[in-house]
Design a protein that fits this description.
- The protein is an all-alpha fold.
- It is 59% helix and 0% strand.
- The protein is elongated, with a radius of gyration of 51 Å.
- The two termini are 100 Å apart.
- Residues 234-289 have a biased composition (Basic and acidic residues).
């Protein structure tokens, strides 16, 4: 339970206390004095969590801190950007003030106390006689007044919260957490002992049910812790990654390069044959023996008069098919 923040730690102990109370401590063998001590520590943890999270001074203090951070950023930016103005007097004033504010660059990221002190030093340096003309030239005089007011308001709220009576009466969160964890460990040890060796009215079945419920509670709290860690980690990664590429000329989302179009092969050109004096196109010579009817020019007629009859059909005989070749179509024999 050491890994839990104050809110989850307080939630676990208050829920565990409720589960033990609902199970009837007489059947569990837990003394009422121990339960009273546990309940008192839970109330302290709740108060400490409320003070640290919901203090009105804390809310106002955060608002004033953001206000003074914005004013410091504006002053630094105005001095820096004036170097690019088309007015030589403004440029020289900017260069002189840049040297003055250089030790205070990044003051917005300091701790509360140190930032308050550094802002006081920044205001004192810019209001020196030798710098007043340059400050006026860049129009920063009213901004210095606003920064001084915001810084004083923050310091007053910070001091008030530190000396508030509600916070002074409460012990430290770390001390109360250790005490609550020690009480919970004693409760678990008593439950284990009573389950094995407890006599009536101790009910082992009630202890079993309570143990299952406490395990479910621990799993639920652990799941909530893991979710919060994952959310913080994702937020930190998102803040760490730059939105713009390092190379200003490179696209934010580079597209994969497209493959080059393959070259269309040229149509193959046949080589021109050598001229041997013969015609380029040769017609096949006709074979007289393949002409129908020999040299007479009449077509070959089947013997026996009419057209060719299939064998074994309804004809009168099986005449010769004629010619030297086989007929083109063969019918299957029966």
């Amino acid at each position: 339970m050491k890994k839990l923040d104050n809110s989850l730690h307080s939630k676990f102990h208050s829920s565990a206390y409720d589960l033990v109370t609902a199970a009837d401590i007489t059947k569990l063998g837990i003394p009422s004095e121990l339960m009273t001590e546990w309940d008192g520590n839970n109330a302290l943890e709740t108060d400490i969590t409320k003070v640290s999270q919901a203090s009105d001074e804390t809310r106002l203090m955060k608002e004033k801190n953001k206000e003074r951070d914005r004013l410091v950023t504006y002053i630094m930016g105005t001095i820096r950007n004036a170097q690019f103005l088309p007015d030589q007097d403004m440029i020289e004033a900017s260069m002189r003030l840049t040297a003055v504010v250089k030790p205070y660059v990044g003051v917005q990221n300091e701790s509360f106390d140190r930032e308050t002190a550094d802002i006081k030093g920044l205001l004192a340096d810019l209001r020196k006689t030798e710098n007043s003309a340059d400050v006026t030239k860049l129009g920063l005089s009213p901004i210095l007044t606003k920064l001084e007011s915001a810084n004083k308001a923050f310091d007053a709220l910070f001091t008030k919260r530190m000396t508030a009576n509600t916070g002074a009466k409460l012990p430290s969160a770390s001390k109360v957490r250790l005490e609550s964890d020690a009480i919970y460990d004693r409760v678990i040890l008593m439950l284990q002992w009573n389950y094995l060796f407890g006599a009536t009215p101790i009910d082992p079945k009630a202890i079993e049910t309570l143990a299952e419920n406490l395990c479910r509670l621990a799993d639920r709290i652990d799941k909530g812790y893991n979710q919060s860690v994952a959310q913080r980690r994702a937020a930190a990664e998102k803040k760490k990654k730059p939105t713009d590429p390092k190379d200003p000329h490179a696209p934010k989302d580079p597209k994969p390069s497209e493959p080059k179009d393959p070259k269309t092969p040229k149509d193959p050109q046949p080589k021109k044959p050598k001229d041997d004096g013969k015609p380029d196109i040769h017609l096949p010579e006709e074979d007289p023996s393949k002409q129908p009817g020999g040299s007479g020019g009449t077509g070959k007629q089947p013997e026996g008069g009419g057209g060719k009859q299939p064998e074994g059909g309804g004809g009168a005989g099986s005449g010769d098919t004629g010619g030297s070749g086989n007929p083109d179509i063969h019918l299957p024999t029966e």
